[in-house]
Specification:
The chain is mainly beta. It has 2 domains: 122 residues, Immunoglobulin-like (Sandwich), CATH 2.60.40; 154 residues, no CATH class. Strands 10, 11, 12, 13, 14, 15, 16, 17, 18 and 19 form a 10-stranded mixed sheet that branches. The protein has a 6-stranded antiparallel sheet with strand order 1-6-5-4-7-8, with no helix packed on it. β5 and β6 form a beta hairpin. The longest helix is centred in the N-terminal third of the chain and has 14 residues.
Length: 313
């Protein structure tokens, strides 16, 4: 019996002996997160990468079970992909191959963009936005900004505008403020930031601020929108939102904006009216979309919100 047990043990060791070890190193891993919900987005995105000087050599990244988009079979990096992937390997293969990354949402929830980066990248790509905006705690990745036609999640606020440069366009008679940035300072929340599309349309989606609890003289009504005793009803809730814009006209307007360049645009001015009264603050009311616009000299509401570069008259 002892001999048989020993023989079995020997056979088991022989079966599990490693004959050959194969490794596959991914030159790039990407995590995307929704700027509205803070959740990771691992589906619906078309992620393409190609060498900066060879845009025809396009490779698509695919989402793995963890929701991270992984790139394989990258032009010029086959040797890297066959490497060991250990510390010594990464010490010998720093990021130095310039690539372009294009990101488009097939479901049109988020704005498209491109990034310039160097490959290979160890682990998940840790993008550093020019604005200093931080991802959710413990999450590396790239933020996704809402498209203007995105469906607004239930119980959330939305600010909309059609940004228009009155001195823009090829003949300087006006044109959309393509890829402009609008930031809202919402009470009690981090800065909410959005990016306009090529037509200047923008939507900022965010949670409502904390409810105001002013004392009412009248008793509460028996309604879902009524306040608790001594409170303010939801219909009466209102908050001041401070706005800040960034914009630099581009000619021609790019089909896909560079996210680094978009977020690094210089400060711009928003205008309340044709008399050039600057707009810096608006009022958000509970349950109502906040549409921001400019007025003409007579105070009549226009369909656009005027924006000009900071140095423009």
């Amino acid at each position: 019996m002892m001999a048989e047990a020993t023989q079995a043990d020997v056979l088991r060791v022989d079966v599990t002996t490693v004959i050959e070890r194969l490794t596959l190193v991914a030159p790039l891993g990407l995590r995307f997160w929704d700027q509205v919900s803070g959740r990771m987005i691992g589906d619906g995105l078309l992620v393409i990468a190609y060498p900066a000087t060879q845009p025809y050599r396009r490779v698509q990244a695919f989402s793995n079970p963890s929701g991270i988009y992984v790139l394989h079979h990258v032009p010029g990096l086959r040797e890297v992909e066959a490497g060991e992937g250990d510390q010594g390997f990464w010490d010998q293969h720093p990021p130095r191959a310039p690539f372009i990354l294009e990101v488009v949402d097939r479901e049109r929830r988020f704005q498209p963009f491109l990034l310039r980066l160097a490959l290979p990248v160890r682990g998940v790509f840790n993008w550093q936005p020019p604005t200093g905006e931080s991802p959710p705690a413990g999450m590396l990745g790239i933020p996704l900004y809402s498209a203007p036609n995105r469906v607004v999640p239930a119980a959330m606020a939305v600010l909309r505008a059609d940004l228009w440069n009155p001195r823009g366009g090829p003949d300087h008679t006006g044109g959309p403020a393509a890829w402009a940035v609008l930031a809202a300072h919402v009470p009690g929340q981090p800065i909410v930031r959005g990016i306009a599309d090529a037509q200047g349309r923008i939507a900022l989606i965010f949670a409502y601020p904390e409810l105001v609890t002013n004392v009412l003289a009248s008793p509460p009504l028996a309604s879902p929108l009524s306040p608790p005793e001594g409170g303010t009803s939801l219909r009466q809730q209102a908050w001041n939102i401070t706005l800040q814009a960034a914009y630099e006209p581009r000619d021609p307007i790019p089909a896909l904006p560079n996210l680094d360049e978009v977020l690094a645009q210089p400060l711009a001015r928003l205008w309340d009216d044709f008399e050039r009264t600057e707009l810096t603050q608006v009022t958000l009311r509970f349950g109502q979309e906040l549409i921001v616009y400019s007025r003409d000299a007579a105070g009549v509401r226009q369909s656009k919100l005027f924006i000009t570069p900071a140095g423009s008259p």
